[in-house]
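Data availability (excerpt). All sequences and predicted token strings are deposited with the supplementary files. A representative entry, Putative septation protein SpoVG, is shown inline so that the format can be inspected without opening the archive.
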Amino acid sequence: MQITDVRVRKVSKEGKMKAVVSITLDNEFVVHDIKVIEGEKGLFIAMPSRKAADGEYRDIAHPINSETRERIQNIILQKYEIAALESEEEEAQAQF
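Structure token line:
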């Protein structure tokens, strides 16, 4: 399985959620609404979820093993960092 596209939509409001991401797998399957969250130990991803009747949140889609989760998280966080740097550069240029 290859992640063939990552689209990052930064969240402009203050808070722990920094971006919402969509990934495309093998140019054939898309997973939307993966969240980039700022936690106590740094950035991490939260897979798309839905609130169940008991009030708990359940993942709608998620990796089956930790290796796949790490690979997805690493790619998403790399793309997020690039998008964040580009955003900072654009803001700096707009001030001049």
